[in-house]
Predict the 3D structure of the following.
Amino acid sequence: MEVLIPFAKDKNGSLAFVDEVESGLECNCFCISCNMPLSAHKYKTNIRRDHFKHAPKVNSKDKPCEISYKRAIFWLCRNILATNTSIRLPRYIGYPNSDKSDEGVLITGEKVYEYQSKVTFNPAIESAQNEIAVLHTNDFDITLVLTLESSAYQFSSTYNQKSAIVVVDVEDFRKYVEGKVNGYRNQVESELLEKLSIKHWHFHPQQTQRFTEFYRSKNQKIQLAKKEQAQRKWEEQQQLAEETEPLYDPVYGFQQNPRYKRKPTRAFRDIIDLNPAPKQYETRWFRCGYCTNIWQSSSIDIPYSVDETPCPSCDHLIRIG
C-alpha cells in the first residue's frame, strides 16, 4: 500500500504543504525521501486527505521509495529545528543513585536555550525509531533524541559527556502526519519547541558537579547534626549532675558526678564502707600552732580532701592532721 505523502520539499529545499502549492505537477515539489518529482492532490471534502503522490512512471518497482510516516515526522522535525534558534526544555531532577534511594538533586531549571542556526543531524534510516539532532549552544551541545518509542531507546555507554542528552517523544506527531487536517505546521512547531511534557533529560554536563555539591552539603549536615546531638547530650548530663545529691568521695570530698551513685565499683564500695561519709554540714575545729588561735569551720568550707588551710588570725598555713 502506497503511503500518502503529507508534505514535500520545493525546488529550494524548503518544506512545502499541499495547501501551499499548486495542484498536480505544477507544484514543482520533490519527495523528501527519494527526491523524485511529486504531484499535489487536493480534495474539496474531508472524505479523502490532501496529499502528495509520486509522479507517474518515476517510482520504479525494483527500487521503491522508502517514504513512511516515521521518516515524514523526522524530516518535519529536522526542518523545524533547522529554521529556528531556540527551544524550551524542562527542569531536570537528577538522582545520584540509579535506584533513586537518595533524594533528587535539581540539576537545572526550566529554561529556553538559544542555539546556532547550524544544526547537526544524522541520516534517518527506515528501520530506525529515532533521529539525532545536535544543537550547538554557547555553553554546551544539546543532543536531542527524537524518538517514536522512548522506552525502547538504548543509550550508548560511551556518549560524549560534554553534550547534554534530551529525549523527545514525537509519537503524538503521528496524528498530524496521518490526519485529514492541513496546515498543522504551526501546531507541530509549537509542540516541538515549547511543549515540556514530551521532553525529559537523560544527561546534563553539570550533573556530576551538582551531585558532588549535594554529597558535600549532605555530609556537612550530618556532621552538624552529630555536633548538635553531642551538645544536647552534654547539657543533659550537666543538668542531671546539678539535680543529683552530692556524694562523698574519701579522696576528693563531695562530688557532683552521678556515676558513683548509679554504678560504683567494688573497690569504691569497700572504701566507702571503711570510711563512712561525714555529715554534709559537719562542724570542724582547728588550732593554729603559731598564734594558738582556735576556730571552727564547716566541712563545706574546708572539706576533708584539703591538707592545709590558712589561719584566719595570722594567715599562716597549718596542716590538717
